[in-house]
Amino acid sequence: MDILPNLLMPLTHLDLLALIAAGTFAGIYVGAIPGLSVTMAVSILISFTFSWDVYPALALMIGIYMGGVYGGSRTAILLNIPGAPSAIATALDGFPLAQKGRAGEAIGIVTVVSFIGGFIGIFALAGLAPVLSDFALRFQPRDFMLLAIMGILLVGSLSGGSLTKGVFAGALGIGIGAVGMDPLTVQDRFVFGLDELRGGISFVAVMIGMFGVSEALMQLHNVHTPAVRQKIDGIVPSWAKVRKHLPLGLQSSAIGTVVGALPGTGGDIASLMAYDQAKRVTRNPETPFGEGAVEGLVAPEAANNAAVGGAFIPMMTLGIPGDAVTAIMIGALFIHGLNPGPMLMIEQPNMFWFIVGSLALANCFMLLFGLTGIRLFVKVVELPRTILLPVILVLSIVGAYAINNSLTDVYWMLGFGVLGYFMRLYGYPLAPVILGVILSRLLDDNWRRAIISTREDFGAMLMGIFTSPLSLTLLLAVVMILVTNSPWWARWRGR
Amino acid sequence: MRTFLGGVIAALTMAATPVLADYPEREIQGIIQWGAGGSTDVVSRAVTPHAEEVLGQRVIMQNVTGGVGAIGLNQAERAAADGYTLLFGAENPLLYKVMGLGQKDYSDFIPINVLARGVPIIVTRPDAPFDTFPELIAYIEENPGELRFGSTGPGGLPSVVTAMINEKTPIDVTAVPYDGDGPALTALQGGAVDVMPAVLGAAIEAIRAGNLKPIAIFDEERVPQLPDTPAITETNPEFADLLPWGPFFGIFVKQGTPDDVVAKLTEAFQAGAQNPDFLALMDGRGFRMLSLSGAEAQDFLDTWQRQTAWILHDAEIAKNSPEEFGIERP
């Protein structure tokens, strides 16, 4: 098998090299603009590259994917508006840093850890793909349910000041996620006979509203305060700094790879889990979490880029998508006359190594473009708010419309923008809302699947959890998280 | 291939009346009922470029998803009946009325081309203690309630096939619903469900790799992709009156679209459906080409709707009786 020529194919063919570079560059900007998502860009590319050869088409898509996942962090740090759901956790500590004039530094370290995370995911894809996809297949509905419960517990670390308000926000998110036709029973839920609600409320619209519009409204309060001057030195992080955060980066990358490889969960959940993990393992952050802790940037960004390689694992080994983007790429492979599935790796290993090579190259371009454009980019925050805020609003509206080409989404987005504004005003955290929306279906569907599988016998389901090593481990993790966060534990530790 | 298409184009131009030359004057909008990367999306995007060559205009494809495809269908129905909005859909709308999902279905549209039909297949894991359909039924009878069937929710292909089996031999199994046949087949490989009636194209690659075991082709004849898997009528001829049955893909325009426009579109997609690249793609995915238009397509849709709606009604899956909508019992 000729691994090397295929691995290096993107590097030796100038056209492929250029396409990956262009894709990564475009991806960074697509990812950075809230509402323009990688999923959207890749599905447009399916039509656009229809008549192309399969390799250049894949090269472009892979570039956009890699760049886009990283790009989401840009606006999260600079404007407190995550460009994509997987950058929500990044805003929590990134924006406070930007307000201290350290946006350049924040973007610098994010770029480097994204690069590291990206490579961990790629290594896992190249070396462990069959093992990891086997592991991912073993997840039963009850395991996904436990995973979702673990996710729900993240509300605790995303709440900031008041847990009560955090729980309220999380519950609101779960409620929003429940709207729409339930695919398991074809029953309408909270639809009120409106066709537009059958498809549910687009959670990207919720996110753009809650983070984009409400942030713009919030900043109207001090529209004439001069913007913080940004330091533009120390953008490229020192080796000492990278080394200090490397263990956390690797740990987060591992979380990202595994969560990315699970079908049905992707970078959004991975980055939130990594953020929570970082909060738990970081003993003495230089700055507390939520006020600009570098650890709070390292963890989610390493995780979401690692999830890219992770998502390719089930796609390449089984023809099962690891997330929404890989689902579209599988469609693209079909259109180009390939049959993605378990046989693809056996019959066309060159395709596999080409994808690994392209991902690696896109990751390098991401580092290059990420570190070179920062000086210009941070200037965005120094723009007068009277210019910046209207631009944010316009982008939010365009982005919301672009999700499904539907005006309904724009109305939802504006509505949630106003709601988010009042929530901010009264000190309610917004990240738990998005967490709730993301996890709502995962929890609901898998709980019901688990209980339906045992013919609605709750005891049998519990038995299933206790007899499966995987489920038991997940259950213990849930219990551990609960116990270690309880006041009794804190008192016991303090003694 | 170029010359072949050129010939088709020339033939079409000669056959065209002078009025036809006017349509299409501008870009056409194509609404795909399902999401990017899914079967409907892949098939629609694969056939359209070949039809564009005949039409001489671009068809801008757009996925309008949600509500089991009802949102896209309604959007196409709200557009003007001028042939500038095409609907790329699957079989689901024919069940909207009986499943209580909407008041509109393909009776509000004119079929341009019913492209192809999917073949259902019953699959299981390689270690399952049964190899044939009769063995599967015997196993269920010995172990009632034990087997879990993968499903995609009421009205989906697995629910219809399971209802068909139930009509012939009542079986005691648990249906576990998933978001689509992809996730359900994943669950089958992971052991979360035991048996899955699926569309051939979704399962074929896992079968070829030995990750799944085919039990029977749920059709009247075997398929060339799996020559060793028996058709169900070979072991259980009682299914013959229900078959052939399967999901399908088609292209539609709103009822009331001028005849010359319908004719032009029909010709364009007939040509597109004959393109060798497209045929190869459909073959690889295990679809049976139909390329029906006009009265033939209408007949196909009516028969499909009558048959499926009544099966779902008899299985008590349907919410409304087909009678309410004038759908006669076949």
Descriptive overview:
The complex is a heterodimer of chains A (495) and B (330). Chain A has 495 residues and is mostly helical. Chain A has a domain at 3-139 and 215-405. Helices cover 76% and strands 1% of the residues of chain A. Chain A is globular, with a radius of gyration of 22 Å. The termini of chain A are far apart. The mean pLDDT of chain A is 87. Chain B is an alpha/beta fold and 330 residues long. Chain B has 2 domains: 26-117 and 247-325, D-Maltodextrin-Binding Protein, domain 2 (3-Layer(aba) Sandwich), CATH 3.40.190; 120-242, 3-Layer(aba) Sandwich (D-Maltodextrin-Binding Protein, domain 2), CATH 3.40.190.10. Chain B is 41% helix and 19% strand. Chain B has helices spanning 2-15, 39-55, 70-78, 96-99, 133-142, 157-168, 181-190, 200-208, 232-235, 259-273, 276-284, 294-314, and strands at 28-32, 59-63, 85-90, 109-118, 120-124, 148-151, 174-177, 195-199, 213-217, 248-254, 287-292. In chain B, strands 2-1-3-10-4-11 form a 6-stranded mixed beta sheet, with helices on both faces. In chain B, strands 8-5-9 form a 3-stranded antiparallel beta sheet. In chain B, strands 6-7 form a two-stranded parallel sheet. At the A-B interface, helix 3, helix 10, helix 15, helix 16 and helix 21 of A face helix 2, strand 2, helix 3, strand 7 and helix 7 of B.
